Input
Amino acid sequence: MSFNSGDMCRVNSVNYIITGDNTMRMLEEFFPEFTEKLDEIDKMYAQKRPIDEKTYQFLCFALSIKARSKPCVLKHFKGALEAGATVKELSYILALTMREAAGADDCWTHDILGDWKEILKGNVCCSCAGDEEK
Output
């Protein structure tokens, strides 16, 4: 049985929502070698990156939408803004990603970015982006 981020599962009469954070915490506890390798890969990508930060964030934003990773969509939306992107540019990337997917991600992405004005105000937290819960 496999679960995607956001899925609900029931274990021993308790409901759990599957999130990337929960999965990574489990991997950090029971398979730390794996998460250490992921960190090494991230560092290598950062060192070897032949594109600027804004372009990198745009690519990651689009890929996160396709991967349906809420934490990563939020992380790279915020990362793109911090790298100098505008909401208009991010809207274009979102539209391009949705068009290339023939609109398949519209409803899911709306759930994640529906409060984009709150993201701009800093009122939406994302642990992947290093945010603390308010």
Helices lie at 20-30, 32-48, 53-67, 70-82, 87-100, 106-113, 116-121. The first strand starts at residue 8 and ends at 11. The beta strands are 8-11, 14-17. The chain has seven helices and two strands.
